[in-house]
Amino acid sequence: MELITKAPKGTRDLLPGESEKWTAVENVMADEARLNGFAEIRTPVFEHTELFLRSVGETTDVVEKQMYTFEDKGGRSVTLRPEGTAGVVRAMLEGGLFNGGYPQKYYYKTTCYRYEKPQAGRMRELHQFGVEMFGAAEPAADAQVIAMAVSIFERLGLWGDVSLAVNSIGCPTCRAEYHKALKAYFSARKDELCETCRERLDRNPMRILDCKSPVCGEIAKGAPKITDYLCADCAAHFEKVKSLLTAAGIPFAVDPGLVRGLDYYTRTVFEFPSAKFGYALGGGGRYDGLVEEIGGKPTPALGFGLGFDRIMLAMLEKEDAFPEEGRAEVYLAPLGEAAAEKAFLLVNALHRAGVAADTDLCARGLKAQMKYADKIGAQYTVVLGENELETGKAQLKEMKTGKTKPISLGEDFIDAYLTAVTSAEDIGF
């Protein structure tokens, strides 16, 4: 038998055994967001293309090379979401959420799509956890958002393998002078730049700093630093962010070459690089002009995105990062049709009581059922045969030790089961 097709290049399936691990990481991230007062938001997987052209920036790699853009049947240009922030801003404005007072705080778990060469930790369908905050201009907001991400890495056991790099790319006033300095510097070596960067030289020279070409990267090492061109307000903002991080005991390094890959960023930018894993596991920053660019009133804003794919690769390198968890706490093994009906009713009662339980649905023999119970990680088993049905009692067996205890199959079955598994002394395990 041959499959008619396979998963598209750059995508992958999350199969049972792996998907549970992803859920465990998602839950840590969502819990940290809730601790900080962020509410969940969900946006469409595709948007009108104009949204990303206006927000992400026409000179970025995302827009120039990576977006999945197509015309729908109505002739409208739509684009699969390449990043999460723009859609959240659009949703906030369209939904009138800004009327609820500031700051507005949102988090999301989402998939994004970028057409690029697939490699470890970089897929065409990528998974992301992000947070966005609107209406907070103070440096403390920057520090809080960064501290949230640091706490997530700590809770996942990755902090230490992951570090924090910060920078300020100033405001439009700062960057006007900085662009002049960059243009002068790169113009002197224009012939050495890649074709894409030569085109960027006049439109947006800062994008050259983010080029992945080794040649452009080497040239960029000698470029002027944005921190030397910050206006007084931006410099003061950055100093306060750094002092708050220091006061919170969060170590960081200032990276003057850090500019992020999207045009909407202003002032504080940050990333979480890892020398051990060879790539950054997330990043973010301020985007104080984005809300206005999309059609709202001038509104300070900031956020971050963490890459699930890369974080999971890092997690899987750590021993015992994910303890084995069974898919059922107890397995009821029926022998015969009458026992199967009884097992069905007991399993449904267990489910209503919040107990993960399973039973045979394939008419297998006892040996095959016990093998299956072990495979799904059941902690306890109960065999139901003619004798058990007649007496109304069975043996609850702990799989790990093989020890057993009688348990009622009557109306008090749930109470008897819960008492047995929560009292090691009573059950004798």
Overview of this protein structure:
The chain is elongated, with a radius of gyration of 28 Å. The protein folds into two domains: 239 residues, Bira Bifunctional Protein, Domain 2 (BirA Bifunctional Protein, domain 2, 2-Layer Sandwich), CATH 3.30.930.10; 92 residues, 3-Layer(aba) Sandwich (Rossmann fold), CATH 3.40.50. The mean pLDDT is 89. The chain has 16 helices and 16 strands. Helix 12 links the parallel strand 12 and strand 13. It is 38% helix and 20% strand. The strands form three sheets. Strands 1-5-6-11-10-9-7-8 form an eight-stranded mixed sheet. Strands 13-12-14-15-16 form a five-stranded mixed sheet, sandwiched between helices. A three-stranded antiparallel sheet has the order 2-4-3. With 429 residues, the chain is α+β, with helices and mostly antiparallel strands. Helix 5 runs parallel beside helix 9.
